[in-house]
Specification:
The chain is mainly alpha-helical and 437 residues long. Helices cover 89% and strands 0% of the residues.
């Protein structure tokens, strides 16, 4: 086993992946920074309220993209290059179909969806100003988020990061002019976001066309039901990982309204911006090492797999601890960034501190889930992913809120992630024991 080679490969995949995932989290943060300071607390809460709809688009794209990327890497490890290219073509077709249909369905049923999310009266109108723009251009976030893992798994980690960076830079510039200078409010924020994601999507397709022209051969776009099922089976776990934050927002918003009203929703919007960015940064470790997990699993090299998991585990512990300390130390400054009024500052600071403890175990749970779906065990990963929103989150939210009120709402997240991490590590230990027998 060449540990120097493994270390080099791990860093080449993980560091760009972490950076790219952090950049994707900055998309919403940039909107929040400009909207919070230029349009006020209610506009900030509106973006948070409709984020689940935007998150569904991203989650479906990530599910298809990662499912295709994992299968593609596995086939490469098995020296099945022709099948690997065909998987890329099927992933591309699935992304185009979803990008063309899902946003339209959301627009058709937008009124009941907003009502379900809790948007009523003036908040309903604010939500529409932002989300309608996102859905009209819904093809772009689907393509941008779906193609990124495919480009990364082809070994182009730096290029995938640069492509994501181009969108972030575009978003910042457009937010400055549309939201801050031209005072276009939520409509301007939505327009800035969708144009930025269009840049990522177009640049990604152009990059693939220019450097990998053979991928666009007609023979690679033949749909095979058996392979599509495999993509969906693998992708259901990363889909869930991407969707869970939106369900967390939905359930927590309901509790915020119950225990603190609109002010609590505004506070949670700030917490969400910070949580989502750190969460994506930590998830980048699991997503980054996933192509290597898949490749060495396909090549049947167990020692390399164990080495990669162990060192990714240590890296996750290090980054999780640093993120927790940083967020707790600068909790007050972070709340100030979003233009939170003085009356909400202390409450917002407390919410950020409570929520930050979730980072300590979140990264380990995400890494272990990535290991499972990347090595042909998607069922275990799927159970771990969906147990969070379906059981653990509602349970801890209700129990903690009933005991500690609004503080209990913020405390629920760390308890959920701790429980999930323990479950994931136990499953990994049990699996390792069985493989030794």
């Amino acid at each position: 086993m060449d540990t120097k080679k493994l270390k080099k490969e791990m860093l080449q995949y993980i560091l760009p992946s972490m950076f790219a995932m952090m950049l994707s989290g900055f998309y919403s943060i940039v909107d929040g920074l400009f909207v919070g300071n230029a349009a006020g607390n209610d506009a900030l809460g509106a973006i948070n309220m409709v984020w689940p709809l935007q998150c569904v688009l991203n989650a479906v794209a990530v599910g298809i993209g990662v499912g295709s990327a994992v299968l593609m890497s596995t086939y490469k490890g098995e020296d099945r290059e022709k099948e690997a290219k065909n998987i890329w073509g099927m992933g591309m077709i699935l992304l185009l179909v979803v990008g063309a249909t899902l946003p339209v369905l959301m627009l058709v049923f937008l009124s009941p969806l907003l009502s379900f999310l809790g948007a009523e009266g003036a908040m309903d109108q604010l939500c529409r100003q932002y989300i309608v723009v996102i859905l009209v251009g819904g093809m772009f976030p689907v393509l941008g988020n779906g193609l990124n893992p495919l480009i990364r798994n082809m070994g182009n980690t730096i290029s995938a990061t640069i492509l994501m960076s181009s969108g972030l830079v575009t978003n910042i510039v457009l937010d400055y002019f549309l939201v801050y200078k031209f005072k276009m409010g939520l409509y301007g924020a939505g327009l800035a976001t969708i144009i930025a994601q269009a840049v990522v999507a177009c640049f990604s397709v152009g990059y693939l066309w220019r450097g990998n022209r053979e991928l666009f051969q007609t023979s690679n776009f033949i749909l095979k039901s058996r392979e599509i099922k495999k993509i969906m089976k693998i992708g259901i776990s990363p889909f869930g990982q991407s969707l869970v934050p939106s369900l967390t927002i939905l359930f927590t918003n309901w509790k915020c309204i119950q225990y603190g009203g609109s002010h609590a929703v505004t506070i949670f919007s700030v917490v969400t911006y910070i949580l989502s960015t750190i969460q994506l940064l930590l998830q980048g470790i699991g997503d980054g090492v996933q192509p290597l997990f898949s490749y060495y699993h396909g090549a049947r090299k167990k020692k390399e797999l164990n080495w990669l998991y162990k060192h990714a585990f240590l890296l996750s512990v290090l980054f999780s601890s640093c993120c927790t300390i940083f967020v707790i130390w600068y909790a007050g400054n972070l709340s100030d960034l979003f233009g939170i009024t003085a009356e909400l500052r202390e409450a917002c600071k407390s919410a950020i501190i409570f929520s930050a403890f979730a980072f300590l175990t979140l990264g380990l749970a995400r890494l272990t889930c990535s290991y499972f779906y990347a090595t042909g065990k998607p069922l275990i990963s799927t159970v771990l992913v969906y147990i969070e929103p379906c059981l653990l989150l509602p349970l801890f939210l209700n129990v903690m809120a009933s005991i500690y009120g609004l503080d209990g709402v913020w405390m629920a997240g760390p308890f959920v992630q701790l429980t999930l991490c323990i479950a994931a590590l136990l499953m990994k230990l049990i699996l390792a024991k069985k493989e030794e027998v």
